[in-house]
């Protein structure tokens, strides 16, 4: 399926064909299973436990027919006869009082940029601009470490706005977390998402010292990025960011520097962007569609998402080529999807929001995640009063994927988890065809890589 070398034209043609196939063959027909034609054998994906099996043409034809007849009882019986039945890997019981293992601090609820689509209303989350005081950051860290046992790990993330607006508190909080972690024999992993415009050379040494995962928001190459991510005065930022990140890219050892691209209708050249950024030396590059913005600008329509699927598959084909040639190609979405498919990831939630992960506002209010800062729908308590377990458990009961429609009828539900809570609550489920199309393609790619380059998984 994958040729040894693809030129841009043939890459686009092949990606177009695969995207069309994925879009038309990934619709939800049965909540129990999904059939994925993949070369000489069909892959049977079982929702329960996210299990994959190669099946014969005859079995595939039988299951396809039963699926078209919507005969779920006969599908259940056929799977049992094949020895593929199993007790439910996930039941209706929601998580209860989970321990917090990750916090993101809105260390600065302000930003120097004026991105049209910003989920945080240009950094202030719809309220007055403010920095998080160091005392609030330290109290957050105390909460994070409170019940940790020796040998465990926690995650501390700095977000904004633009977190480097409040560099002093960020550094002192990092130092504090590092010291407190050592005292308790708890490993604290640090991460930051930054727009890159305020980075200074000595930030690189600081992030390297503490082993930060640094994510730089970049929305394309040159002018494409500048149109989407200007300063508040409208001037471009790309050239400055690229200059600023050079010390980080060169210094990364313990530190990992990744690029994150928010995809809007204005920056759909994904394969070109991916190759450019990987060529610059980023540890990984990932794409995420803009499904909801605070002012509606830049949101992706169904047609845009169809186009994006094609672009993602083009990137996936490039990934496959490199893997077959034994070369590293850190396309993050693909790496994550393949690992999850190989592992049989199955989860009742899309992410840790409101469970093990919470966001903290500059005022010390707890939220289900960074996007719910200042939003009543995601309130989770406060540093003053601790996690509000009534709010948290209610959230976990209502956000369980079995409670979501139409997720409980969707074959992809335990890989997807029901979609980002914030986007779903604000906009509904607008990206399901895109999600299923991408998973359909990555299951095919998994079958190819398992056959042709199994060493990649090691
Ligand atoms: S959000 Fe995910 S699980 Fe729910 S219907 Fe859409 S693709 Fe399926
Ligand atoms: S709710 Fe959405 S934005 Fe928040 S952590 Fe989950 S996926 Fe991310």
Automatic annotation (TrEMBL):
The keyword Metal-binding applies. One of its GO terms (molecular function) is oxidoreductase activity. CDD domains: Radical_SAM (cd01335). InterPro entries: 4Fe4S-binding_SPASM_dom, Aldolase_TIM, rSAM, rSAM_sf, Sulphatase_maturase_rSAM. Keywords: Iron, Iron-sulfur, Metal-binding, S-adenosyl-L-methionine. The keyword Iron applies. SUPFAM superfamilies: Radical SAM enzymes (SSF102114). Its cofactor is [4Fe-4S] cluster. Residues 95-328 form the Radical SAM core domain. Pfam families: Radical_SAM. PANTHER family: ANAEROBIC SULFATASE-MATURATING ENZYME HOMOLOG ASLB-RELATED, RADICAL SAM DOMAIN PROTEIN. This is Radical SAM core domain-containing protein. It comes from Chitinophaga rupis.
